[in-house]
Amino acid sequence: MAQQVDLDTFAAEARAFLDANARRRSGPGAFRWGEGSDYVGFFGDPNADDEADVAAARAWQRTRYDHGFGWITGPTRYAGRELSSLHDVTYDLIEAEYDVPDTEVLSVIGLGMVGPTILTHGTDELRDRYLPAMYRGDVVACQLFSEPGAGSDLAAVATRAVRDGDEWVVNGQKVWTSSAQHAQIGELLCRTDPEAPKHKGITAFVLDMSLPGVTVRPLRQMTGGAEFNEVFLDDVRIPDSHRLGEVNGGWRVAVTTLMNERSTVAADSGGAAVEAISPARLHALMEHTGHAADPVARQELAGLAVDVLAARALTGRAVRRLQAGSAPGPEGSIAKLRFAANLTRAAHFAADLLGDQVTADSGEWGTFSWNQLLLAAPALRILGGTEEIMKNILAERVLGLPKEPSR
Amino acid sequence: MSATVERVAPDEAERQALREAVRDVCARYAGPDEARRLLDPTPGGEPNPALWRALTGELGVAGLVIDERFGGAQAGWPVLQVVLEELGGALAATPFVTSSVMAAALLQAGADEEVALDLLPGIADGTVVATVAVAERSAGWDDWCRPSAPAAAGTHADHDVEGWWISGVKRAVPFGAVADVLLVAAETGGRTAIFAVRTEADGVDVRALPTLDATRPVADIAFDGAPARLVVAPGDDGRALRRALDAGGLAVAAEDVGAMRECLRISVEYALLRTQFDRVIGSFQAVKHKLVDMLVRVELADAAVEDACLRADADDYSAAAVAAAVAHACAAESFKLVAAETIQTHGGIGFTWEHPAHLYFRRAKTSELLFGGAARARERVLDRLDLDGAATARP
Prior knowledge:
The complex is a heterodimer.
Chain A: H1 7-21, E1 23-24, H2 50-66, H3 85-95, E2 98-99, H4 104-121, H5 124-135, E3 141-144, E4 160-164, E5 167-174, E6 185-191, E7 202-208, E8 214-219, E9 228-239, E10 243-244, H6 250-259, H7 261-268, H8 272-276, H9 279-288, H10 295-323, H11 331-354, H12 356-359, H13 371-380, H14 387-397
Helix pairs in contact in A: 1-3, 4-5, 4-6, 4-7, 7-11, 9-10, 10-11, 11-13
Chain B: H1 3-6, H2 12-29, H3 32-39, H4 49-58, H5 77-89, H6 96-110, H7 113-125, E1 130-133, H8 141-144, E2 156-160, E3 163-174, E4 181-188, E5 191-198, E6 204-209, E7 218-232, H9 239-273, E8 275-276, E9 279-280, H10 285-312, H11 317-346, H12 357-369, H13 374-385
Parallel strand pairs in B: 1-4
Antiparallel strand pairs in B: 2-3, 3-7, 4-5, 5-7, 6-7, 8-9
Helix pairs in contact in B: 2-4, 2-5, 5-9, 5-10, 6-7, 6-9, 9-10, 9-11, 9-12, 10-11, 11-12, 11-13
């Protein structure tokens, strides 16, 4: 067992680490018109150097790991600290005050979802092999769940895995796989018993992405960039030692992963998008476009500011509840729904302010670039669970309403 | 460490005990039947005075946000929040917000010490009911919250060796007909000052008005040379009124959260009970999603109110003022949606006089229109954020 560290001591330790290894931001949300990148979007800046960003993310994760902040809640056996989620949140809040590389490519899927799943369902061999490497920043993991025919109805996955001695032979196609182009491993769901009811015929594996038969093809999305991939699996031979959980017990494994998803999406959907919907940033745009005194624009900004600040208060409430030792409430799911709504509203408000400068590139800094946010916004209502599915879950789990009767 | 993590909620068991005590009092003297009774202008159709007596005498909650040196309990906003939520949930018709919160905030923010020592102990124990008379037909709350008096000010004060007197007309003063003391904003020498006027004094004419939401009665009050006592001298830059306004907005928001929770509770209960097409209507996605939309608004407003209450007692008033304005605007908009969808979820029965849905709808609409209305409330958020003052944006 690791030694328990009280929050204040831990916070001081985190600050000392960050002071020594990173630069403090001049002020959160500090923004000056015309300075720096004018990219405004949810997905990566298409003009950015992807490879360099991934290298920077890995290097920063390695630094965290070397100083005991690589896996704050993880077991000591895998170089974790065995501290509480509150210590984790505390670290995130403190790190947000510093200018450090964005580690989303590692953290959202791999460290936030796949890592905890391997820890819960993996054999000792799999844990020893992958967990330290993941939290050290060496291994990027992706999630091979969605298929062309299995979106909201994830249990309908059709990718087949057929046992052949100590191996499984896999054939099928996955889609909407983030970071597959950077990943060394993927958490894969396959159909192993087509005769069983759909939830009972699925098996989960850790897929080594370098195996023969794995083809990753970028999927260009409506923003013009390609953040996602299609992954084709042709006679891929996975050793049985890379199975996660029981044969045909893959649905339980998937649920473990998805349980970690919603909070991750809401907490980590940071960066340029969060900055873009801050009232200060939008007000700067109003000033620049000559709408600072326009009562219609002011009303819209104020309405948006209320929703953005209320959503922030909701996250604060979740942290306090965690601190008080109570179980997490619906805050994660609600925060995700509201983030999508606020982002969409902000994107269209910015477009209203910019007028033809968002539909035609005048070359001016900070204008046409908003179309990236405008085009990204629809994705937020779909990824990480569509709004409709999330509302069903909230209705059933929080309000106690019955499930849709099955046909 | 960020401020979000440092702020710790007050003792939960204590708050829960208080919540149950207030709920018990409300079960006796408030609730939908009482709110409906008040809508019919019958003899004795005034709010039940037993509610106020129980809240102040039995529970002693009138002085929760009044300093101990003025006879209050100084328990803080997170404790007050619990009382307000219960009052809102029960549609309680009581001058609690106007007297125990707004008048208390105004007097503590800017009153002359001697006047505060004189008035606050009575407000803290509930023997004195005070209200705040600010808005007029041509000058609203925000006009009065400025350093100089509004150009269109219709209430004026003057004095001689005998003392001050005021003349003018105040519009829709909350609980004006049951208050003992009115805290009145008036123009004098081009600036705003606040005066205490007894409702029973000569030259004060109180006319109660029929209201959309009978649990929030108002009165037009005309002053004709009424004797007045100077409470806040001219030249405080509108600070005392702004504090009263922010406190009032937050208090109403907390009441709204309690009311919204009740709306959601009865709507979910009905959706689980009502059967159509051989299914409970709560199993239809169209209804489920509607109820989740309501849940989302309730949780957002609740979080905004909790955040503002935790900040309200702190020293950083600018952060507290932003949070209070956000809570008010968020709760008003949320309650409007939740109350309307409560009627919709209930279908025809929700449109009847006997069903409580319209009582919440009336209150939601009134909440939204308090202190100048929703657009003003939103503009106040920008004002408190102070975005215009900065050449470059600030956090």
